[in-house]
Amino acid sequence: MNSSEMLYAMCHEVLSTADIKAICKSRGFSEREANSRSLFESVFLSATGIEVAMKSLTRAEIATLHLLHMENSAVDVALFERLYGTKRTGSQAYGTFTQQFKPIYDAVQRGLIRKGLLIINETKTNSPTKTKMELWRYYFPPEFGQYLPSLFESTIHADQPGVVQVDRFRRELGRLLQTGSANSLKSSDVQLVGGSIVVGKRTFKAKFAQEWQQETWEADILQAGLKKLGTMIIAQPPTMHQGYLLAKNEYHKETPLPAILYALSKLTPDEWINPEELTPFLNVVYGSVDHPAAAAICQMGWKNSCLARYHADDMDYYRLIADRPPSASASPDSYLPVDNGGDRGALFVDLETIPYDVLEYLNRIVNLKVENGRLKVVASISKMVDSFDALRTHELVRYLQKHDTHFRAAFKKITDQWGKLIVHENLLVARITDLSLRVKLQKAFEPSDEASSPNLVILQDEYVAFPRAMLGEVEKLVKKAGHVIKTVQAR
Question: 20 to 30 Å CA-CA from 243: which of 100, 146, 311, 339?
């Protein structure tokens, strides 16, 4: 059931008259809306009264709504155990599901539903063992997200870049040069395979640098959580995802990192927080106060080059690292210097300064080779062919043409042959000597209204080309026209 269906069901079937009047009072709706369920439905998602209703929320309630806004999915009543539950909630010794969660259901009704901040509905089920309490679904409308109060009670403003650790991913790239054979670095996520930089099993992209650093930060948080729980426990408690409607066999890491990144993204460009400001949110995310300290988590983020740190009044403050300057500010000669020594004319990559987006592009169009402790650029016709449409006007290509004779020769060769040679693994070529049959095929496979390009191309010297997927259709038409098909396997 989508959100519109949930809203309709709530307004027309779930809420009592007393519920609607309470919501109208909280949100400031008129008597007309209070007396008409259809009008009530039409104004529920409006901005009217949202900020006023949210002013009465506790800090834990604000944190919970932020969590629901981040996830943007329906949850069940068990999620609110972290907000309104007790130590006995969720314990089998406490009673049935209904007995355990009825107090929480009532608290959600008072604290969030009757303030007009959540959509509630009862889902359908064929299971005879499911109780009504288990079938309630709650949804925080994304339209309300912009009106959420800040997660933080106190922040400081300072127009300072803060202290940033050395980029750990660049250090990982630098390990490629520490051996004569880059492929031997099996312990590293970053390797040189077949002339290309790969991260894990994927060809390097600029976004992988930030993802890699966040993954190492996440691993540190998980390790800290295990240490806090004790050596005899090998997994986090299941509270972090309790209440989420996860599909069967769906795996979610027990990590607060997505929530931490969400929270820090809410800071303005010159705003900083003390780690303790994250604690109430972490309590809700974990569903427990038993988790790694916020100060330790922020320290790990700083160590892994994900956060900037600012020290003031004997306290540390953190925020996400500001975006780096665009790569256009750096000229190619600063990160692709020409060797005027022993390997005269060769180009080498400076892994300390090359912008990640430039490295991604370079990785696509040339081979990279470790030579004498440096990363050498080697022209690759096969790579250039794959990216030729994007090659022609790129600044980096102009630089490579100017300074690398091998690249210049390869580029000229491709340019001269472009349009004359077709290489396609899934393309079939047929020779048709009968002119009338060629005309029939051409008419039968003309471009449709949906596809502007032709399905069959007439070539020179009685040849036609078409995708392999069309082979059955072509053979059917040829046989129907009374012609014999002879197949030749190319070698």
Answer: 146
